[in-house]
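User: Can you predict the 3D structure for this chain?
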Amino acid sequence: GVRFFFRHLLETWKRRNPQVEVATEHSKFEHPQITGEWLSGETQEVPIRKMRPRQVGDVLDLMRNSHGPNLTLRHGGPRCWSERRSIQGMWQPSQSLMLKSLAWTHKMRQWRM
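Assistant: Here is the predicted structure, written as structure tokens:
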């Protein structure tokens, strides 16, 4: 997967994306990873161990198209605050909808019997 991409497909990816500077470094005793460095100085490391060549190309395309590392995903995303906390996320039932759903459930139970 990863070796095939670096041996055969990396050169074509470089030719298709001349705006991206690509440098490869071989390390014997470490897992393969892609390190992206942006002009702002931010860096992001993505492990590519056991990836298929298509997946490695997708990771390179994602890093090429992004403005910087996605730090919100790394830390669990944006936080949502509401008056009613729920394990499943934000949910705010209204009284009328709750009564309608209870009536529908009751009607379906009677219909099945």
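The beta strands are 33-37, 43-47. The CA atoms of residues 96 and 102 lie 10 Å apart.
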